[in-house]
Amino acid sequence: MLTLGIETSCDETGVALFDDQQGLLAHALFSQIDMHADYGGVVPELASRDHVRKLLPLCEQVLAQAGRQRSDIEGIAYTAGPGLVGALMVGGSVAHALGYALGVPVLGVHHMEGHLLAPMLEDNPPAFPFVALLVSGGHTQLVRVDGIGEYQLLGESVDDAAGEAFDKTAKMLGLDYPGGPRVAALAEQGRAGQYRFPRPMTDRPGLDFSFSGLKTFTLNTVNDAADKGQLDDQVRADIALAFEAAVVDTLVIKCRRALEHTGCKRLVMAGGVSANKRLRAALEAMAGKLGSTVFYARPEFCTDNGAMIAYAGAQRLKHGQRDGERIVAVPRWPMNTLPPVAEPRSNGLVD
User: Is residue 346 part of a domain?
Assistant: First the structure.
């Protein structure tokens, strides 16, 4: 089955073609970062309008790259949520219009399931079961994965997601949007041991996360340095390093607990924050001590992209799952409500 994947959940317009026999054939991405940087974050209405402008040209681009025609498409997958509802509606509208015109099935895909399955696009994909760390701007979750659609939530953030804390810290340090990569780059210039930040919720049992207090601690540290006239470039770098180290240590401690709790020997890391080099190195070191293996997608598939949606959608479409006539757009959508791929039914959101 040749599946067209469409991603428009936030500020990235992603399109890809995935063939279940030949793998990923082509993918393209347009980022709106430059436009939203002027506002210090994503403006939902502007994001939706830009998806309208860019989506169909990107569809034509990936078809040309793959040497395929529209008539070759056998199924269409699009991001149905979570995400910005206007942006989701753009992708859903285009997907349903193309599906109707071509007479092919269409399916709304869960955005975080796409991230979770992105490592399956690599040459050495993980086998089930595994523990997944989903860490992005909107989510921080630990999930036991026994198969596609077989998800057990082990723990999640009770307040801010790790990626959100990175973005807020960037603003505190006067860094441009997007914040996460900027903080990581600045941390490279930091001096270890200048500051010691707390590792939230690691002194108690359980697998939940909390980053709100860490964000407040960072703000107080920045303000204190500024009040003393010490907030120069080096101190900003020292604070960035201390913050990043605290987040990384917290995620590693919780991942270790999850692997020990489940007995799984494979850890999948997915989502935008999974591109962080310090986090990757720390998780690999931890997993090595446990005799476990860490899997993650290549950097271009860590952030939002069409390839992960094409892959996730293909797995469900070939098992008979598809939308009804209505476009699906679900800003909030618990992933553990998804049906397993073995069940030949709709995604449960529409008739």
Answer: no
Q: Do 131 and 187 belong together in one domain?
A: yes
Please name which of 134, 69, 62 lies closest in space to residue 306, comparing C-alpha atoms: 62
Closest CA to 122 of 275, 311, 298, 274: 298
Binding residues: 111, 115, 134-138, 167, 180, 276, 304
Supply the pLDDT for residue 351: 33
Tell me, yes or no, whether 42 and 112 share the same domain: yes
Binding site as annotated, residues for Fe cation: 111, 115, 304
Q: Let me know whether 279 and 134 are in one domain.
A: yes
Q: What is the mean pLDDT of each run of 10 residues along the chain (351 residues)?
A: 97 97 97 89 95 98 98 98 97 98 98 96 96 93 97 96 95 93 97 96 95 97 98 98 98 98 97 94 97 95 96 97 95 92 50 33
What's the CATH code of the domain at 260? Answer: 3.30.420.40
pLDDT at 336: 87
> CB–CB of 95/111 below 8 Å?
no
Number of H helices, E strands in the chain: 10, 10
| Whole-number Å distance between alpha carbons of 225 and 231 | 5
The reply to whether 55 and 72 lie within a common domain is yes
The reply to whether 263 and 307 lie within a common domain is no
| C-beta of residue 167 within 8 angstroms of C-beta of residue 137 | yes
**pTM of the predicted protein model:** 0.93
Asked whether residue 197 falls in the same domain as residue 222, the answer is: yes
Binding residues for substrate: 134-138, 167, 180, 276
Predicted local confidence at residue 347, as pLDDT: 45
Question: What torsion do the CA atoms of 299, 255, 136, 4 make, to the nearest 10 degrees?
Answer: 60
